[in-house]
Amino acid sequence: NFWKKNQKTLKNKIDDFSVLPNGQLLIPKPYSHFYIYPSISESFDNKIYDKSDKNTPVDINDIIYRNGKTFLASRTRGLFILEDNKIVSLASNTNFKEKRVIDLAINEAGQIFIANNNGTIFKAETNKDFKITDTISKNNICGNTILFMECYKDLLLVGTNEGLNVVQNNKIQFLNNYDGLQNRNFNTSIIYNDTLFIGTTNGLYSI
């Protein structure tokens, strides 16, 4: 059993983990190191990235995968790219200096949306080199705090403390309590079978 074999390493709190398409297991421990295991069934040859290294992501909020690249959002160190077991900090090595990244979403074209803690959303191309191509100002988003982002076809869905922003071609439609979203304490979200499910502190919405 993987977890029994690794009790000493993983004995502290784990908020999140991710299994990549290649079978690797990523475990970012809160306020600590970043671990990569070759698979969930193996306990040997795990790689530990020390939190003192500026290229190590800590305080991970979100993890997404696209074409061999894994993007990691850190709320204290910005955006990181993991590729071929090498981690690169964009804040330290590129012109994208955002340090407080709280959420990520990716569309069918491979474009990534990156939200910071101030409510600004950046759109980036990732198929070749990382490049910011557009920005959605926090002034255009209804709500002070971004709680989730999802992509569906050509839509970007942004949940905030005020409701749901539906972004399409630089136009934004806003849904709130007048549209049936009485509870805006959003906890989680997922798109399944063309339906957006939003988990709240008082039940589940489907849109």
Question: Could you characterize what this model shows?
Answer:
- The chain contains 2 helices and 19 strands.
- The chain is globular and about 55 Å long.
- The strands form 5 sheets. Strands 1-2-3-4 form a 4-stranded antiparallel beta sheet, with no helix packed on it. A 4-stranded antiparallel beta sheet has the order 5-6-7-8.
- Strand 2 (25-28) and strand 3 (34-37) form a beta hairpin.
- The model has no long low-confidence stretch (mean pLDDT 85).
- The chain is mainly beta and 207 residues long.
Shape: globular
Number of helices: 2
Largest sheet: 4 strands, antiparallel
> Could you tell me how far the N terminus lies from the C terminus, measured between alpha carbons in angstroms?
39 Å
Mean pLDDT equals: 85
Helix content: under 10%
User: What is the helix/strand order?
Assistant: HEEEEEEEEHEEEEEEEEEEE
Please state the oligomeric state of the protein chains shown. single chain
Tell me the strand order in the biggest sheet.
1-2-3-4
Taken as a percent bin, the fraction of beta residues is over 45%
The count of β-strands is 19
Uncertain regions spanning at least 5 consecutive residues: none
Structural class: mainly beta
**Computed CA radius of gyration, to the nearest angstrom:** 18 Å
